[in-house]
Amino acid sequence: MAEKTTTKAAKIKRRNQVPKGVHGGMQLVLTEDVPNLGKQGELVEVKAGYGRNYLLPNGKATVPTGHNLRLLDRYKQRVSQAREARVADLKVLAEQIQRLPRVDIPGAEGKKAYDLPSITIQANANDEGHLYGSVGAPEISKMLFGKNLRVEPDMVQLTGQIKECALYEVELQLGYDIHTKIAVAVVPLKQTEKK
Fewest Cβ atoms closer than 10 Å to its Cβ: which of 96, 117, 155, 171? Predict the structure, then answer.
């Protein structure tokens, strides 16, 4: 009888456990940048549920084994090359935006004037200049797309919706800490174009 239990115990396979961190969470290696957690390739400690239910299934992290670390090094090289190419493209985009026709924005008392590239958006408005609706990031992005500038709506940083005809300063956050500013002139549609 003792022979059966020892052979049965020998057959039990031990599964690979995820290493525990200092604070009792799981240790994982990030395969891509995760906001508020870490950069790609970092060894991080997270709660078990966050790692098991989000990071591992979505491929944002992996268990730190020797094989996975080697694969991650190769992957990091490819991603860094792609990142460098993307940063170069975004810098070119920022330069193209800066080549747009410029408009002078007079400064208020004690503030300096701005000389920014500008775009003009026509919108339905009443006689007082209040818009029937609003101008937001999608409209600004669409206008820039019309000028062959690939700016996505999530790159446009507005503090709120634009609801009046005026000249606005808008920041474009292109990514990888590349920022630029443009002036957005919102003008009413001409009476002949209104139907």
Answer: 171
Average pLDDT score, the chain = 82
Strand ranges across the sheet with 61-62: 43-46, 26-30, 61-62
Q: Where are the beta strands (DSSP E) in 52-98?
A: 61-62
- Banded pLDDT at 138 (limits 50, 70, 90): very high
pTM over 0.85: no
- Which CATH code is given to the segment(s) 18-95? 3.40.5.10
* CATH top-level class of 100-188: alpha beta
Give the separation between CA 153 and CA 110, rounded to whole angstroms. Answer: 33
CB 171 within 8 A of CB 157: yes
